[in-house]
Design brief:
single chain, alpha/beta, five-stranded mixed β-sheet, binds zinc ion
Length: 226
Amino acid sequence: MTERLPASSVNGMQEYRKLLLANKAWAQEKLEIRPDYFLRLKDTQSPAYLWIGCSDSRVPAEDITGTEPGELFVHRNVANLVIHTDINLMSVVEYAVDVLEIRHVIICGHYNCGGVKAAMSRKSYGLINKWLRHIKDVYRNYSRELESFTDPDARFRRLVELNTIEQVRNMAETSIIQKSWLKHGRPWLHGWVYDLYTGLIQELTLIRPGDLPDDIYRYEFSPELP
Ligand SMILES: [Zn+2]
């Protein structure tokens, strides 16, 4: 079976082995600085932050925030979307809020986001059309503002920002967050944007516990109902 594989598969092996070697060096380096670096985290984690970012390889959550293992609980998807029917994300949010008791949810978009760019075009990309459609909805909601930009790059940058702001609102509209606000007065919800050209993060929006932007999304909880 192996001999029928194209020559490029040999390079492929070198490519992935590089990561395993780097891992050994990294673990060694950490132990040299602090002998209990790994042992102190082996049984428990108590991160203060839930990070929801884009899958883009250029936006490594821990690196750009200078955080160590144990500090960030991370979920990433294409264009950092918060969709209420996404069982994967909602499970992450519920676990982070109810069990880990995180105090901040950070939704971080980034300029030059391929997902946002694709959503701005009319090209069909197959299955991911269904995912990107949520960004088209953001575009439609803000079409007047977006179409006032004559520079397409400025429009693109603004849609990245608006998409992030909308995802923070989507997060506030979940019953998971609203219940936690009532019971525990947390978490704070943050919308940030990362600039690939400068390496810097900029704050776009902040929703404090209890500050739901639109009342129609506010749930009234009773002891009997979930
Ligand atoms: Zn992206």
